[in-house]
Specification:
CATH architecture of chain B: 3-Layer(aba) Sandwich
Number of strands of chain B: 12
Number of domains of chain A: 1
Helix content of chain B: 25-40%
Largest sheet of chain A: 11 strands, mixed
Number of domains of chain B: 1
Number of helices of chain A: 10
Strand content of chain A: 25-35%
CATH superfamily of chain B: P-loop containing nucleotide triphosphate hydrolases
Structural class of chain B: alpha/beta
Low-confidence stretches of chain B: 1-9
CATH topology of chain B: Rossmann fold
Structural class of chain A: alpha/beta
Number of helices of chain B: 8
Distance between the termini of chain A: 11 Å
CATH class of chain B: Alpha Beta
Largest interface: A-B, 26 and 30 residues
Distance between the termini of chain B: 32 Å
Shape of chain A: globular
Oligomer: heterodimer
Strand content of chain B: 25-35%
Number of strands of chain A: 23
Radius of gyration of chain A: 22 Å
Shape of chain B: globular
Radius of gyration of chain B: 18 Å
Mean pLDDT of chain A: 87
Chain lengths: 477, 263
C-alpha cells in the first residue's frame, strides 16, 4: 500500500511538567513506607492494619504475565509511593490552593476556581498522591451526596468506608490490586443516599506530575437504593523517558434500583514513537450490582498509556440487574492495550451488554479480552457482546479473546465480532468528496465508535471525539 | 442532438495528453489524449480491461495509480499535481463504480461535511445542519427523490442501485465542474437507469462537463453524449459522435481492438 503509512507524529498535548515544590518519599516499598503514607493521610489504626495486611499478601504474589503485552521488568523498589505538592496542610477554601496547581488544572481544561467552574460538573482534582481541590462539595451536601477525597472519607465516614471497601475488589484480588491496597493514596469517595438523583456530574481528574513516582488511587462509589449517579474520570501525565506505574482500584456498589454510570477518558502519556516512556496503566475496576434491578454502566475511551491492562466488570448479583460495558481503545505509536470486561451473572434475569471498539494504528497492539460467566442460579440471563476491531496501516495488530462460561441452560448469549481495515479506498472516497486525509480518518473512526460515544455525557463525547482525532493525527500518510 | 459540430472554440476544461499510468507495476494507460470543453458530455467506452476505470481513478487522484508520463491540465492547472481533496475542491467529482460504506456516519452528515469542505474553498460560509437540510430538501425535490437515504449510514446496507443513486445525489449536491461517472450504469435495472440518466440530464449545464465511463451503450440511450471515445488496450483508438456508440453496440469491440493491435 502506498498511501497509508502508520506514523503518528502529533505531540502529546498534556505532556508539560508543573514546576512545583513537592514532598516526595524516597523510592522503595516496605512496611515503614506504608506507615508513613498512612500517617500522612491521618488514618485510623484499622486502615493501617488493612494496608499492612494487603502488603503482606502482595509479597507472596507475583506479577501476572498472561496479558498480551510485552514490557521489561518493573523494579518496585525504584518507585516512590508518595508525592505531594507542598502546601498548607488544611485548606478552608479552594482559593487557598497554590496558583500553580490551579493553573495546571486550568491548562488541562479542568478549571477549579470558583468563578470558572464547569457548570453541572463537580470536580475532585488529584495531583500525584493527593487531592488538591474538590468543587461543589457544599452544594452536593445539601442533597446528602458525599463527594470527597478518599483520605477525607476514611477520616470522616469510616463506617461507610469500612462497610464497602474491598467488598467488590478483594485486597488480594490480583497482584496490582494488592499493591494498591497497601499503598493507595487519594482517589474519590462517593455516596449517594436513598432515592437521590445526584444533581451534578461527578468527576475526578488525575494528574501525575512528579517523576519516578507511581500513582495508586482508590475510588469507591456507593449508590444507595433508588439513587442515580454519573461519574467521570480523566487523566494525563507529563512526557517522560521513564515508564511510570499507575495501578488504581475502583469499586462501585449499586444497591436496589440504583444506577451508576461510570465514564473514563484515559489520556495518560502514551510514550514516544519508539515506545520510550509512557504510563503503565494496570488498573482493577469492578462494580457490584448488589440490589435487585440495579444497573452499572461502564464507558471507557482509552487513548493514552504505553500499556493498558484493565477489565472494568460487573458482578450482577441482584435479580434483574444490568451490566454494561462500552469501550473504545486506541493504540498507536508502540502502545499496547489488553482490555475488556468481565460480566459475572449471579442473579435471575440479569442482563449484560458489551460493545468494544478497538482501533490500532502505527505499531499499536490492541487486545480485547472479555469474560461472560453465567452462574448456576442465573435463570434467564442474557448477554450481548459485540467486538469490533479496526486497523489503520499494516504494522499494527488486533486480537480478540472472548471467554464464555455458561452454567445455566436458560442463558441466551449473542456474540458478534468484526475486523476491518481503514482502506485506502475508504479514505480516497472521502478525499474525493473534498475532505482532507485527516478529516477522512477522523470521520471513519468516529463513525466506527459512535455506539460508544453516544453513551458518554455530551460534553465529554465532544472531548472524546476531539481526543481521538488528535491520537490518530498523522497516522495516514 | 449532437453539439460536436458547432461547439465553441474555447480551450478544454480538461486536457489530457499522452497520459501513461501503471497499477502495481503494470502499464494500463499507454498514452491517452483527451480534451473536454466546458459543457460537453464525453463517453468513454471500451472492453473490460481496456483502462476505462483507471482513467477515471487517475483523474480523481487515487494514490494506487502511478503516472508514468504525459500530462493532465484542468482549468489551466496541473491536475496530476493536486491532492485528491484539492481536485475535489476545484470541482472534479468522481461517481464511483464501487462506492464505499462508512459505518456510523449518516448520509446527511457526510454530504454536509463534503459540501462545507467545498464551500470553505470557495470562501462561502459553511451551512449549519438546519440550513443544509433546507438546501438538501430543495435538491431532492428538484431531482424528484425522497429523503429516505439521508439518515442511513453512508452506503451501509444500500442495494447496488441505491449506492449508484447516492453517487448521483452527491453529484447534484456538490455541483462539480467536471463530473466523472465510472460505470454508473452497472448493476442498475432499467427503471433505476432511467432515473439516474434523467438526473444527469437535468444537471447538464454550460459550465459543467461530464466524462461518462461505460462498458455498455444502454446508458447512452438516455444520455446523449457530444463525443464518444473508444478506449482499447490503454489508448483511445477511435472518437466520434453519438452514433459511434450504436455502432459499437452492433459490432462489439473486437474490430477496434484488432485495429489497435495493428497500428
Amino acid at each position: 500500500m502506498t498511501g497509508i503509512e502508520a506514523h503518528v507524529q502529533q505531540p502529546y498535548k498534556y505532556g508539560f511538567v508543573t514546576d512545583i515544590e513537592s514532598e516526595v518519599v524516597p523510592a522503595g516499598l516496605n512496611e515503614d513506607v506504608i506507615r508513613l503514607i498512612s500517617a500522612k493521610k491521618g488514618e485510623p489504626e484499622w486502615m493501617l492494619d488493612w494496608r499492612l495486611k494487603a502488603y503482606r499478601n502482595w509479597l507472596k504474589m507475583s506479577e501476572p504475565h498472561w496479558p498480551n503485552v510485552k514490557y521489561g521488568p518493573i523494579d518496585y523498589q525504584a518507585i516512590s509511593y508518595y508525592a505531594a505538592p507542598k502546601q498548607k496542610p488544611k485548606l478552608d477554601s479552594l482559593d487557598q490552593v497554590d496558583p500553580k496547581l490551579v493553573a495546571t488544572f486550568e491548562k488541562l481544561g479542568i478549571p477549579i476556581e470558583e468563578q470558572k467552574r464547569l457548570t453541572g460538573v463537580a470536580v475532585d482534582a488529584v495531583f500525584d498522591s493527593v487531592s488538591v481541590a474538590t468543587t461543589f462539595q457544599a452544594e452536593l451536601a445539601k442533597y446528602g451526596v458525599i463527594f470527597m477525597p478518599m483520605s477525607q472519607a476514611i477520616r470522616e465516614h469510616p463506617a461507610l468506608v469500612q462497610k464497602y471497601l474491598s467488598t467488590v475488589v478483594p485486597m488480594n484480588d490480583n497482584f496490582f490490586a494488592a499493591l494498591n491496597s497497601a499503598v493507595f493514596t487519594d482517589g474519590s469517595f462517593v455516596y449517594v443516599p436513598k432515592g437521590v438523583r445526584c444533581p451534578l456530574e461527578l468527576s475526578t481528574y488525575f494528574r501525575i506530575n512528579a517523576s519516578s513516582t507511581g500513582q495508586f488511587e482508590r475510588t469507591l462509589i456507593i449508590a444507595d437504593e433508588g439513587s442515580y449517579v454519573s461519574y467521570l474520570e480523566g487523566c494525563s501525565a507529563p512526557m517522560r523517558d521513564e515508564h511510570q506505574l499507575h495501578a488504581a482500584v475502583v469499586e462501585l456498589v449499586a444497591l436496589e434500583r440504583a444506577t451508576i454510570k461510570y465514564s473514563t477518558i484515559q489520556n495518560w502519556y502514551p510514550g514516544d514513537d519508539e515506545g520510550k516512556g509512557g504510563i503503565y496503566n494496570f488498573v482493577t475496576k469492578r462494580g457490584k450490582c448488589l440490589g435487585a434491578n440495579s444497573k452499572i454502566s461502564w464507558t471507557q475511551v482509552e487513548t493514552g498509556s504505553a500499556i493498558t491492562w484493565k477489565y472494568p466488570g460487573c458482578i450482577l448479583q441482584g435479580d434483574n440487574s444490568i451490566g454494561e460495558f462500552y469501550s473504545v481503545a486506541v493504540t498507536s505509536h508502540k502502545q499496547q492495550a489488553d482490555t475488556g470486561t468481565k460480566m459475572i451473572h449471579l442473579g435471575k434475569n440479569t442482563r449484560s451488554t458489551i460493545v468494544s471498539k478497538g482501533i490500532s494504528a502505527g505499531r499499536g497492539q490492541n487486545t480485547y479480552r472479555g469474560l461472560v460467566k453465567i452462574m448456576k442460579g442465573a435463570e434467564g440471563a442474557r448477554n450481548y457482546s459485540q467486538c469490533d476491531s479496526m486497523l489503520i496501516g499494516d504494522q499494527c495488530g488486533a486480537h480478540t479473546f472472548p471467554y464464555i462460561d455458561v452454567r445455566n441452560s436458560t442463558a441466551i448469549m449473542e456474540h458478534e465480532a468484526s475486523t476491518s481495515k481503514i482502506g485506502e479506498d475508504q479514505i480516497f472516497y472521502l478525499r474525493q468528496r473534498g475532505l482532507s486525509a485527516e478529516d477522512a480518518v477522523s470521520m471513519i473512526v468516529n463513525g466506527f465508535c459512535k455506539e460508544v460515544f453516544k453513551e458518554l455525557p455530551m460534553e465529554f463525547a465532544v472531548e472524546a471525539t476531539r481526543l481521538l482525532g488528535i491520537s490518530l493525527e498523522g497516522s495516514v500518510g | 442532438m449532437p453539439k460536436t459540430e458547432n461547439r465553441k472554440p474555447t480551450t478544454g476544461l480538461l486536457e489530457v495528453k499522452g497520459l501513461r499510468v501503471a497499477v502495481a507495476g503494470n502499464e494500463i494507460l499507454k498514452g491517452v489524449d483527451l480534451t473536454i470543453r466546458e459543457g460537453e458530455v464525453h463517453a468513454i467506452m471500451g472492453p473490460n480491461g481496456s483502462g476505462k476505470s483507471t482513467l477515471a481513478q487517475v483523474l480523481a487522484g487515487h494514490p494506487a495509480y502511478e503516472v508514468l508520463g504525459g500530462s493532465a491540465k484542468y482549468d489551466g492547472k496541473d491536475l496530476l499535481d493536486l491532492k485528491p481533496e484539492e481536485r475535489a475542491r476545484a470541482g472534479v467529482f468522481l461517481a464511483f463504480q464501487y462506492p464505499v460504506e462508512i459505518r456510523g456516519i449518516t448520509n446527511s452528515y457526510f454530504l454536509r461535511s463534503a459540501l462545507n469542505a467545498l464551500r470553505r474553498e470557495r470562501g462561502e460560509p459553511e451551512l449549519d445542519p438546519i440550513d443544509f437540510l433546507q438546501f438538501l430538501e430543495a435538491k431532492l425535490k428538484a431531482i424528484g427523490w425522497d429523503d429516505s437515504m439521508m439518515n442511513r449510514p453512508v452506503n451501509e446496507g444500500f442495494s447496488g442501485g441505491e449506492k449508484k443513486r447516492n453517487e448521483i445525489l452527491q453529484l447534484a449536491v456538490l455541483e462539480p465542474r467536471l463530473a466523472i461517472l465510472d460505470e454508473t450504469d452497472s448493476g442498475l435495472d432499467i427503471d433505476a437507469l432511467k432515473t439516474v440518466a434523467e438526473t444527469v440530464n437535468n444537471l447538464r449545464a454550460p459550465d459543467r462537463s461530464f466524462l461518462i465511463v461505460t462498458h455498455y451503450q444502454r446508458l447512452l440511450n438516455f444520455i446523449t453524449p457530444d463525443v464518444v471515445h473508444v478506449l482499447a488496450d490503454g489508448r483511445i483508438v477511435k472518437s466520434g459522435g453519438p452514433e459511434l456508440a450504436h455502432e459499437l453496440e452492433a459490432k462489439g469491440y473486437d474490430w477496434l481492438r484488432d485495429a489497435a493491435m495493428v497500428s
